[in-house]
Design a protein that fits this description.
This protein is of the alpha/beta class and 247 residues long. It has eight helices and seven strands; from the N terminus they run E-H-E-H-E-H-E-H-E-H-E-H-H-H-E.
Length: 247
């Protein structure tokens, strides 16, 4: 796949999945505008990449409307057009349902559901200027099983599927495609902290492919959906969980 001079916006770009996507798109010739709320992580990623000119970063909270508007203005000033938007930012605490406060519920939905809406709606005028606009959103395979201690997270990620399908019908007339990828439990730093080794081992045994899922396992599906090869695929889900669920 060739992304030479394509403009790619990635939210959650400094996270485990986001950084893997950033590296791959850059390696394929793209220009990446990396968004994350963790400045230190973005700086570390920039240093790891060798501070390439094709990499631009911005720190803000995607759950804040004004921040998303300001970010869109920066992208407009830098590029004037967005070819690909990857909504990869996420927040996934483990909390028993009877301990979830309304404040926590709102925070989790704000980041995981409101954030993709705010970023997408503010960048859509720039995506419409692309000759082959692509929107790829990272949902979660947890929507298929309903993880017990992640009720707000699963709710938000399921909402992203409805968002993906409806938005596909809204923007199709502009030759923009909208799709979602549903990862299984992926071995990022937060996951390693949240889950015990025993719990992670059980997840591996539930899969047809019996190994840990790495962030790099998601890159191929996302890049495919962002490519010219996927020009007639929209409103769809690609499930990447090693065969824990079949859809």
């Amino acid at each position: 796949m060739d992304f030479a001079n394509k403009t790619i916006v990635i939210t959650g770009a400094a996270g485990g999945i986001g950084s893997a996507l950033t590296k791959r798109f850059l390696s394929l010739g793209a220009k990446v505008f990396a968004a994350d709320r963790n400045q230190d992580a973005l700086d570390a990623l920039k240093d790891e990449l060798g501070a390439p000119t094709a990499f631009i970063s911005s720190t803000f909270d995607i759950s804040e409307e004004a921040a998303c508007q300001e970010f869109a203005a920066k992208v407009r000033e830098q590029w004037g057009v967005v070819d690909v938007l990857v909504n990869a930012a996420g927040y996934f605490p483990l909390t028993p349902f009877d301990e979830v406060t309304y404040e926590q519920w709102r925070e989790i939905l704000a980041i995981n559901l409101d954030g993709p809406f705010l970023i997408t709606s503010n960048l859509l005028p720039l995506i419409k200027k692309s000759s082959a606009g692509r929107i790829v959103t990272i949902s979660s395979a947890s929507i298929f099983v309903g993880t017990a201690e992640q009720c707000p997270y699963v709710t938000a990620k399921a909402g992203l599927i409805g968002f993906t399908r409806s938005l596909a019908n809204v923007v199709g007339e502009h030759d923009i495609t909208v799709n979602a990828v549903t990862p299984g439990l992926t071995m990022t730093a937060p996951i390693k902290k949240l889950f015990s080794k025993e719990a992670l081992a059980k997840v591996v045994q539930s899969r047809a492919v019996k190994r840990d899922e790495q962030a790099e396992d998601l890159v191929g599906a996302v890049c495919f959906l962002a490519s010219e090869d996927a020009a007639f695929i929209t409103g769809q889900i690609i499930n990447v969980d090693g065969g824990s669920t079949f859809h």
